[in-house]
Amino acid sequence: MWFQSFLLVGFSFSLCIGEFCSINRDGSNECHQQVVDDAEPSKYSRELNDQWIDLKRKISIAFENYEECSAKNCSCHAHVIQENLLNFKNGITPQMIKAAESRGTKYQIINHRLYRAKACMFPARCAGVEHFLFKMKSKIPDTEFILNTRDWPQVSRYHNQLQPVFSFSKTDEYYDILYPAWSFWEGGPAIKLYPTGLGRWDRHRNSLKEASDTWSWEKKSNVAFFRGSRTTEERDPLILLSREEPSLVDAAYTKNQAWKSNADTLNVAPAEEVSLEEHCRFKYLFNFRGVAASFRLKHLFLCKSLVFHVGDEWIEFFYPAMKPWVHYVPVENGETKEQIKQLLNFVRNNEDIARKIAEQGYNFIWNHLEMKDVTCYWRKLLKRYSKLLTYQPSLDDRLVEVKHSS
Question: How far apart are CA 252 and CA 268, in angstroms?
């Protein structure tokens, strides 16, 4: 394995004061002065040396413990279904479905035909889901479920009774059952560059691969990049760091629908939006959650850039199979400008590590998040979910048939 040789040469360290040291293949120590950016050479002291050695140890352990999952039958993501449905191991009753109806849109598959409640809060989101449901309806037994198309999960472990509600994103504080977001096919955040939403993951995969091939690692700008609206204040430290050190970070706020003045973009005029493909011009890309999980995360990996993923609370169905320090750099919520700067200086001065993690992130998304994996996950989810129903569903005459997919 490539990381075994990496461990021998670069990931085992003994400390020499004021120097960075590694253990060679023959077991001898090699110490040398670390070549760093000229921004703050005085800060590369023993304390910082220790921090960097600690980071390298974390990365070493992460790779040593990581096992690549099989690409067969979306097996990377099957454990998410198992864990989500474990809450319902005693069965799902008609009463539970009835109690959950107000939390989403009711769907049924009866005699291999797809039905849906007449009203959908977000038609494009329902259409994005129905693309997959319609494709597999002939393989699913009679079933019914409540699908939440809101941004926020619905069934809190602390304030609600157990109810089976499908949601695209959640934290550990919710019972909701994860399903692949509508944006794999349609919808997603609507911005100037994508007025109908991101959508069509299959097309983005191809366009981003082309962009990543055009902007190879050697051609990428050696700065961190972010564009997005000020959904949360968690993004502020990166924006402020960019204003102080533009040679290190290029980060700026854009408008969103709630924008009223420059106060909404941290007292600077909003920046122009940047296409996903243009993100590939940069070596380091930051991802922040929005109201819930961010739709952009999967796209960033396909740039073959190193992804800095901020926060670990909010997840989509494919997140758990990806591992910090193997596929991305984890950043805790609330990190200061200085802490972010230290992380960036680490990867900029250890590009072999940065590039290898970037490649691992790209390979995972490219190999384990194809459209067929999304369809496979839906099929497994509905089959396993349907086995938990304690009754035989019958057609609800309030629903209308979905006769074709988008």
Answer: 9
Instruction: Give the largest CA-CA distance in the chain.
Output: 77
Residues 6+ apart with CB under 8 A from 42: none
Q: Which amino acid is at 213?
A: D
Q: What is the pLDDT of residue 17?
A: 29
Q: Are 312 and 289 in contact (CB under 8 A)?
A: no
Closest of 233, 228, 214 to residue 286, by C-alpha: 228
User: How far apart are alpha carbons 173 and 313 in whole angstroms?
Assistant: 9
Enumerate residues 6+ apart whose C-beta is below 8 A from 393.
108, 110, 142, 143, 144
State pLDDT tens for residues 212-262: 999 999 999 999 999 998 988 899 999 999 999 999 999 999 988 778 899
How far apart are alpha carbons 328 and 337 in whole angstroms?
A: 19
| Cβ contact 221:274 at 8 Å | no
Q: In whole angstroms, what is the distance from residue 167 CA to residue 244 CA?
A: 39
Task: Give the angle 366-369-374 at the CA atoms, nearest 5°.
Answer: 155
Instruction: Write out pLDDT tens, residues 64-93.
Output: 999 999 888 999 999 999 999 999 999 999
151 part of the active site: yes
For 48, 163, 247, 308, 353, the CA distances from 39, given in Å and listed in that order, are 15, 55, 10, 22, 21
**Of these residues, 151, 236, 312, 396, which one is catalytic?**
151
Name the pTM for this structure.
Answer: 0.87
C-alpha 376: how far from chain center:
19
